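SEQUENCE, STRUCTURE TOKENS:
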Amino acid sequence: MIVAAAANGGFVDRATVYDLAGYPGDRQLKGFTRPVSTVSRELEDAGELSGEEPFLRHTIYGSVEEPSWATGFRIPDETVPLLGEIFEGGPLWPSQPKQGAELDDDDPRQPQKGSGQ
């Protein structure tokens, strides 16, 4: 979820989380956020984090259908490039061509000649 959020500019929606985790649509996300909280606390206890760092994951609430359910999750902006260095090009963060790079006609992410795109 964190890598998918980073690949999407810092936000991942509820539907993507369900898809990535293989959750059924009627499942609640209770307990879903506990591992990040636990690891953060453990890193603070070990002296690796000061406790002043921004929290890695914030829950965004308030869908129209269910205002008390999470609509998605946001990560701090400064973590996006850090995670990109590690995960870009992987299954959750496909590589994007660099500006000015040659287009690959076989790359399905590229507009095809004559497609009107």
User: Anything to note?
Assistant: Helices lie at 2-7, 14-21, 34-45, 79-87. The radius of gyration is 18 Å. The chain has a mean pLDDT of 80. The longest helix spans residues 34-45.
